[in-house]
Task: inverse folding
């Protein structure tokens, strides 16, 4: 049996045999033919002019054209318009007897979609060694390209993250170090990769590494763990850590991924806020205590003077004394409100499931007499709330009493207490048909000491709604108000369901 010069010569004879049954093909050629036909790669041969002369099943799957559709067509059939310039360069390379080494490119499928391929092109020679065509082997690399794109995006995210993103081995040796880590810890990547992560640990925190690695080896996540670390310059910083296991393709834990966020400034603000709150609490307590004593004396001596006065005393004197008593009482109430506002900001929440229907019924029973037919109150079924019952009672009480106060000057006062459900939250509201307000002042309503009406119109200190805002904010909710002058107002608040 005559041996072919090389595989490409054999392929040339196989191609010829596909159109001329009289050509004898050696057994090796038959085996090669089967390999070609059942290959997952697209294997195509063309003339030097680019006419397709063979088209295997892999090419059918890759490009979508059946063999009979592709045979005799020019190879430009599967080349996108912006890649047509590749073909002349390929032909010139092959004509010179050289191979086109695998390179990544794009080709066009029958359905118009582009497919990423790795293409190798070789010369086809006849028995005399003359180049008679081109052999093209194309491998679909779409999945690899997508993976590379994802990897590039992830690399971009990691490199441009403000957080430190670090990977290390299960023994704590640093294997990757992003720019965020350089900014936060002050070390360049080449200074720390290969070193143990404990170079960042203060001496009194070294035991944390064993704790962290122990959890990771169990496959557990360490989430938002707050600790301290040391920068290159020796500065101790506060960080929040999220640490997770890195797994290989078989699911085995092979390393550790660590994301560290610098929370030093946040911690500083928290400490400063805590100090100021403590100062405010001490100041409020001192002021309230020091003001109460003289107020009590003023009230006591005013009553004493009133008792000592002759019954025939001037009415102006009596009115003045009564006004002093009223003013001191208002001052005392204002001190109580301010003290309460301060205490709410410091109070911790004791959340339970609250029967809001029962809570509102108790408030109405306490402040609205059953015999009082002057106020029409409509209350729908209210869903339960999750919160501090004592504080939420105060919210409903303030809003209901507010509605009663501002609707009493209407001919037929009406109050509606209701609720609305949304995904994850419940909104409760109290509406009235009272004096209302201009919406341009809505942002002032929940601010302490802000009032839209004078004391002669409606009594109050402008603290009640500020207390409402404070309580709802502590519960993670929001307050709101809508109104129209002369047509009433609606005050509401939302609470998370959990």
Result:
């Amino acid at each position: 049996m005559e041996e072919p010069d090389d595989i490409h010569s054999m392929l040339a004879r196989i191609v010829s045999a596909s159109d001329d049954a009289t050509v004898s093909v050696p057994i090796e050629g038959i085996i090669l033919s089967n390999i070609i036909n059942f290959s997952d790669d697209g294997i195509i041969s063309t003339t030097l002019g680019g006419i397709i002369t063979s088209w295997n099943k892999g090419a059918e799957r890759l490009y979508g054209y059946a063999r009979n559709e592709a045979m005799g067509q020019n190879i430009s059939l599967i080349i996108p318009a912006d890649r047509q310039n590749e073909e002349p360069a390929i032909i010139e390379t092959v004509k010179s007897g050289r191979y086109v080494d695998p390179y990544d490119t794009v080709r066009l499928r029958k359905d118009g979609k582009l497919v990423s391929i790795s293409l190798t092109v070789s010369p086809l020679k006849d028995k005399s060694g003359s180049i008679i065509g081109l052999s093209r082997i194309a491998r679909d690399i779409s999945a690899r390209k997508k993976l590379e794109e994802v990897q590039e995006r992830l690399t971009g995210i990691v490199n441009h993250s403000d957080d430190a993103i670090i990977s290390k081995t299960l023994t704590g040796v640093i294997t990757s170090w992003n720019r965020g880590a350089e900014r936060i810890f002050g070390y360049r990547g080449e200074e720390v990769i290969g070193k143990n992560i404990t170079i960042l640990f203060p001496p009194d925190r070294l035991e944390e590494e064993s704790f962290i690695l122990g959890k990771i080896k169990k496959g557990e996540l360490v989430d938002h763990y707050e600790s301290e670390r040391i920068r290159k310059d020796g500065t101790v910083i506060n960080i929040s850590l999220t640490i997770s296991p890195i797994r290989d393709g078989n699911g085995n834990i092979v390393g550790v991924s660590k994301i560290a966020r610098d929370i030093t400034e946040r911690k500083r603000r928290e400490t400063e806020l805590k100090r100021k709150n403590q100062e405010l609490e001490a100041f409020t307590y001192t002021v309230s205590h020091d003001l109460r004593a003289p107020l009590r004396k003023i009230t006591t001596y005013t009553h004493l003077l009133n008792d000592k006065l002759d019954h025939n005393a001037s009415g102006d004197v009596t009115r003045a004394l009564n006004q002093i008593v009223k003013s001191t009482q208002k001052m005392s109430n204002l001190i109580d409100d301010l003290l309460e506002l301060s205490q709410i900001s410091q109070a911790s929440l004791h959340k339970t499931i609250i029967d809001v229907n029962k809570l509102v019924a108790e408030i109405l029973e306490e402040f609205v007499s059953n015999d009082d037919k002057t106020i029409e109150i409509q209350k729908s079924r209210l869903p339960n709330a999750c919160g501090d019952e004592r504080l939420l009672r105060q919210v409903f009480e303030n809003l209901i009493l507010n509605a009663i106060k501002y609707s009493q000057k209407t001919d037929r006062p009406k109050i509606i207490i209701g609720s609305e459900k949304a995904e994850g939250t419940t909104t409760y509201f109290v509406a009235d048909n009272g004096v209302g307000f201009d919406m341009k002042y809505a942002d002032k309503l929940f601010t302490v000491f802000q009032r839209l009406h004078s004391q002669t119109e409606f009594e109050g200190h402008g603290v009640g709604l500020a207390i409402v805002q404070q309580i709802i904010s502590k519960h993670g909710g929001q307050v709101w108000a809508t109104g129209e002058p002369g047509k009433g107002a609606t005050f509401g608040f939302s609470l998370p369901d959990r």
Residues 264-308 form the longest helix (45 residues). The radius of gyration is 42 Å.
